Amino acid sequence: MIEEPNQEVKILQGNEAVVEGALAAGCRFFAGYPITPATEIAEMMAERLPPLNGVFLQMEDEIASICAAIGASFGGMLACTASSGPGISLMQEGVGYAAETEAPIVVVNVMRGGPSTGMPTAPSQQDIMQAKWGSHGDYEIIALMPSSCQEAFRLTYRAFVLAQRYRVPVYVLSDEIIGHTREKVRIPQGLAPVERQKPRAEKKNYWPFKAGPDGLLDGMPAFNEGYKLLIDGQLHDEQGRRAAHIPEVCARLTERLCRKITIHREEIYELETAFIDDAEMVVVCFGSPARPALRAVKEARRKGIRAGYLKILTVWPFPVERIRDLPEQVHTLIVPELNVGRVVHEVEHATAGRKEVLSLPKLGGLLHTPGEILEAIERRNR
Amino acid sequence: MNPMGEKYLRKDSLPFLWCPGCGNGTILAATIRAIDQLGVIDDVALIGGIGCSGWIPVYIKADVFHVLHGRTMAFGTGLKMSDPKRKVVIFTGDGDCLGIGGNHFIHTARRNLGMTVLMVNNQIYGMTGGQVAPTTPLAAKTKTSFFGNPEDPFDACELAKAAGATYVARWTAAHPIPLSKTIAEAISHEGFAFVEIIAQCPTQAGRLMYGISDPAAMLEFLKGKTIPAQAAQNLSEEERKGKLIIGKLFHDSEKTEFSKRYYQMAASSGKGD
């Protein structure tokens, strides 16, 4: 294989690839707390950030970790935290605060089996719904799902891009398999750090929460730059002043926090397809099961079955239209996932009953084998 | 309006949401005087927690964070570490700081992270209507200690000192002038500075615990319970019982502040270990 000169090739585990992606994006603040299977992210950040004059902090718990990251974000740094299972549950109040105050932060969840302490060393995809609904109240987040170490690198970088652009917490939903798998990762050299736009408005006329027609704010100043920011977790008006007693202001803000993501969904969506054009059955997958899924689809093709493959990399906002607009001849969608069958309901919702949807859940910390997915395809083909 | 108010308040956020006779207005004024004396309005990052006292910074025209219940110091850690030149000043209540935020409090003090924590102690959860707090006196009646509080209260200053705070002081809202000087000194202190401010809450603590709802009488009552730190040194344990020791209780200007130490270590990281 010929290596490109402008890229570095490393053998990395997914957790390390996440760190490379974050650092390439310009992340210079990480606060975390040890937890399996995400700990390697903190360990590598602890080694890599100080020489870059960045900040690594091991906090007293995960609540403090996400709050410190939000503080650093408004302090002017690109900030990140990472955890798993119970740690992500503790972080939920911070996720809601970041959504409400439009703080760009990246939260990496290396998903393990739950509920509760669950299966600390085994993978799952049981937190996909938590990513969307985990904190109280109405809000939207973005969640990206890598299925390889290369994607862990690339999607973590993209998470920082999206967080700054939409002023929103962005999840990278990795899992124990990706986190601990070592494979080749190509790291492009000279990748530009993500830039945070400063406001266009003059300081004295600047209202921190005045949005344009697209629901997005005018850049993001940091504390102590002369803007005299007022950042409040209570619903607020465009100047940041508390407005919990003013129904129309609160309604407008809550609606905008959701709309600013949903109206931009087409530019957020990222999917990959293979063998779709003439497919009759499509495996709709995301994260780790995407790999046995692709293998199963290829095997099916070898057997003359018209199977197709659709991988979702941006699970939230859910790419409803892309599922809905699958070719007419596709009669069945098969959804393998490492949980009791959660995202399958989103797929069913998208198809609105026009296609058959088969759930292929897998629990117990094991990944689907290609054979299991192939069997589901063959069963439907008969 | 008072020229200080004119200069430093977010006038369009007025009136204050506090009850008449609340101690928070006095603390707000003392803070503004301290900031004015130091000339640091552009350098401060003010953080309020949840509860009545968490609203104090919201009225000040500075960079302000009004955050989650108990998490002021975690947010402050991110702000301070992302730019150590910032002067982080935190407004937290006794419940916010010692109850839900107790863990962050002791660990931020342990690190000696450079910030000023102004803990307003009204001995009760006021905003939610008068529930028992980690500072409520033994046997005191509140809405959730109906038959009297069975728990002993924290001494927040002792806790701060034991955890590693390098500046510790206590005043009451009945001492606005020394309080203002102390806040200025705390902001100037490099490390973790903790100031407990005992404040009257006529609406909840006064009515439920003390049977006094007149703010002036409450201030007199508070004043009567205080003993200056120096005078207290000569008193026996017995004589100090039930009294509030006020003034500067501890000051260590030698210990290196955390962000300074972190960046020094970071600067030498990777250089021939």
In short:
The complex is a heterodimer of chains A (about 375) and B (about 270). Chain A contains 14 helices and 16 strands.
In terms of topology, how is this protein built?
The complex is a heterodimer of chains A (382) and B (273).
Chain A: E1 7-13, H1 14-25, E2 27-32, H2 39-48, E3 55-58, H3 62-75, E4 78-83, H4 85-90, H5 92-101, E5 105-113, E6 119-123, H6 128-133, E7 142-144, H7 149-166, E8 169-175, H8 176-180, E9 182-188, E10 230-232, H9 247-262, H10 265-268, E11 271-274, E12 281-285, H11 290-302, E13 307-312, E14 314-316, H12 320-324, E15 332-337, H13 343-351, E16 356-361, H14 370-381
Parallel strand pairs in A: 2-3, 2-4, 4-5, 5-8, 7-8, 12-13, 12-15, 15-16
Antiparallel strand pairs in A: 1-9, 5-6, 7-14, 11-13
Chain B: H1 3-8, H2 24-38, E1 44-48, E2 63-66, H3 72-82, E3 87-93, H4 94-100, H5 102-111, E4 115-121, H6 156-163, E5 167-172, H7 176-188, E6 192-198, H8 202-210, H9 215-224, E7 226-228, H10 229-232, H11 237-240, E8 244-251, H12 258-268
Structural account:
- The complex is a heterodimer of chains A (382) and B (273).
- Chain A is of the alpha/beta class.
- Chain A contains 14 helices and 16 strands.
- Chain A folds into two domains: 7-188, Thiamin diphosphate (ThDP)-binding fold, Pyr/PP domains (Rossmann fold, 3-Layer(aba) Sandwich); 271-381, Rossmann fold.
- In chain A, strands 2, 3, 4, 5, 6, 7, 8 and 14 form an eight-stranded mixed beta sheet that branches. Chain A has a five-stranded mixed beta sheet with strand order 11-13-12-15-16, with helices on both faces. In chain A, strands 1-9 form a two-stranded antiparallel ribbon.
- In chain A, 53% of the residues are buried.
- Chain B has 273 residues and is α/β, with parallel strands linked by helices.
- Chain B has twelve helices and eight strands.
- An eight-stranded mixed beta sheet of chain B has the order 2-1-3-4-6-5-8-7, with helices on both faces.
- In chain B, helix 7 (176-188) links the parallel strand 5 and strand 6.
- The termini of chain B are far apart.
- The interface between A and B is large, with 45 and 38 residues.
- Strand 10 of chain A pairs parallel with strand 2 (63-66) of chain B.
